Every structure is written in structure tokens, then in C-alpha cells.
Amino acid sequence: MPLNPRCLPPHRCRAGCGCGMSRRDFLRLTALAGASVLPLLRSGEALAQTLRGDNVPVRIGYLPITDAAPLLLAHAQGLFAAQGLQAKRPRLFRSWAQLVEAFISGQVNVIHLLSPATLWVRYGTRFPAKIVAWNHINGSALTVRPDIASVEALGGQSVAIPFWYSIHNVLLQQILRRHGLKAVSRPREEKPGPREVNLLVQPPSEMVSALASGAIAGFCVAEPFNALAERNGIGRIVRFSGDVWNAHACCVTLLAEQDLVQRPEWARRVTKALVAAQAWGRMHRLEAARALSAEHPERYTPHAAATLEAVFDPQAMAAYETRGVIVHRDWHLTRIDFQPYPFPSYTEALVRLLRETRLEGETAFLQALDPSFVARDLVDDRFVREAIAELGGPALFGLSPDFSRHEEVAP
């Protein structure tokens, strides 16, 4: 299956399927932590004044990765309409910078965002937003060139990640440390040492072609780019993210706090639609893959159905167990699964792990955060609990009755 030729140049994706973070995008987002966020905030507040009540249209912003699945499936299956909501066609963005700017300015009101990036949005830029649900669990991997025999062989090489504040960066650095390697961030022309791995922030749409050209030795990113690399013989998966942090969140659903306060019934209905979409996706995995594909009439993403099916197929993990890719077989790993409840234990562990992760940009706010406070303050789980109960209870998603769990991080 050939790559999309529009995505081959390793500098910029113009096809609308880019979903990572270029250096320019990173600088744009970093600037939001300063005074430049104020015009966007004022714009969003002005728009909010004109949109009152619970009849506000659902305006979804998303990037074309599997993490957007609940938002897109809820639209495709008419689940917002079933909740009495008017939903505009989801709006595809090319970068995290564009998505966050559109959210802050009120152009979109429901987005998915990398779970570590939500801390940066709420506490770094001080924009009042809240997590209302997880989008899916696992769904990412570390993929390397076929000639890379082991993780240790990444020493002296460059590996791409989609953003500094991403679960991919957090878990990749856990893996590297486990194998005696140190993550560094250096100019492309400066070769890392033999026990160092240079981390590059790169849009996922550029990662597959960069791997094929030899510009990078690997990448850690969300699906379906790992599946795409394998299907094209360009790379091979050496570790799944869910085999490092058991049943972790990648992206989460974010709403503006003013929507939770001013129109709680609207926020409740939005959350119910998203939880229903996840329940449907669990029971119709291959249908969900096709609904997200380029072959679907809505063309939510540019990805082939066959590529997405490789991610959603519950039988696909058996081959990786045979190859010895899976380390924690007792975790009963799924490549991707749906589970909307935002565990406080996960949020607390994420804060702690981010503090030991190499990050670029302003990070001082992290040191001042109390993990237990963040778990209470960043997340609003009222509506997701209610939605899960109405659909049949925690067992529907394989959860404990009291919504508790122990975090397992073992690189």
C-alpha cells in the first residue's frame, strides 16, 4: 500500500492529515503561556456571551488520530442528536497549536488533547479547562527502522515524538532509561553520544516518511502511524505503550470550565454521547475502524480502513506475543480499547512522571503542582460517572465497581 505522496516531504504536511507539533507550532503554544493568550481568552469570552443556554451546537475540533475516535464516532452514529444536541461537522486541524488556539478562542468547544498537555493548558497557560472523560486507553507504540535490532541500538540515533507534553515522550523516556540510554535534545546536525538518544518533535504525518528516508531511527506516537509503517515495511513495532503503562490514557476530552458552570446540562449530554460512543466502539471494533477511515462517506481521517483495522482488531495482538514484543503478558494487553473514566490515580502518577521527564519550554509550574490537588482540580467526573451508570455500570467497560485501580508502570 503506497504512502500518501502529499505526506512524503519531510518538512510540512499540506494534506490536512498532519497532527503533530513542528518547532514553529511549539513556539506558538509556548507563547500562549504569556500575555499573548489574553486576546484569545477575550475572544472566547465574547463568543460565550452570545451563546447562552443548552442549545449551543457541539463544535468538535480534532486531529486525525485514533484518539479522536469517541468524538468522531459520536458524530457518525448520531449520538449527539440522540441527546438532543445539534452537532456541527467535526473540524479537522493540522496541528496541536491550531487546535488549542481554536479551543481557547471559542471556535470549537469539544476537543481531544494529549493528557500531559492538559496540565500545561490549565496550569501553564492558566486557561480554565477541565477533563470530562478519557478518549481511549493504550493506542500508541515505539516503532523503529527494520535494521534496528533492539532498543539499545537506538543509542546515538534520533527518535521522533509528537509533543514534549505527550504520553509518548513520558513513556519513551521510561523505556530508554530502562535500557541504559539518556534522552537529549540537540540540533539535528549535532550527533548524540553512543548512549544518548536525540528526541525530535515532529508531526506524526511526517514520521513514516522520515523513518523511510533514514532521517530518524524510530518514533513513538499514536496510531495509526505505527500500523502504517509496518504495513508499508518501513518500520516495526518494538514496544506498545500499554505494555509500559497498563491501560493508560493518551488523549482525553477537554471542555472549557465556563461550559461546565454555565451550561451543565449541555456538558452532561455531550459527555453521555461520548461515553455511548465508546461503548459502541468496544462492541463494534472493526466497524469503528471503517467509520473513521477515508472510505467512510464523512472521510474523518485520510487513513485506509485496512490500516485502522490492524489497530482495532482484537485478535491482532497474538502475533506480537509470538514475536516476543509483549513483555507483560499478564496485563492482557489490547492495542486499543475504550474506557472513559478518568482515574485520579492516573492523573497523580502523570504529574509525578512528568517531573522526571525531559521537557522543553516553561516547566516551573510543574514543580508547584500537588498531584492529589491536580487529580481533583483538573478533572470533572460527575457526568462520566452518571453516563457509565446509565449504560449498565462500570462492568460494561471492565472497571471495578468503586472506580479504583492501582497504576502499573513497568518499562
Describe the protein in words:
There is one protein chain. The protein is α/β, with parallel strands linked by helices. It folds into two domains: 233 residues, 3-Layer(aba) Sandwich (D-Maltodextrin-Binding Protein, domain 2); 105 residues, D-Maltodextrin-Binding Protein, domain 2 (3-Layer(aba) Sandwich). Helix content is 40%, strand content 13%. It is built from 18 helices and 13 strands. A six-stranded mixed beta sheet has the order 8-9-7-10-6-11, with helices on both faces. A five-stranded mixed beta sheet has the order 2-1-3-12-4, sandwiched between helices. Helix 12 packs antiparallel against helix 13. The relative contact order is 0.17. The N terminus is likely disordered.
Question: Could you give a quick summary of the protein structure above?
Answer:
This protein has 411 residues and is α/β, with parallel strands linked by helices.
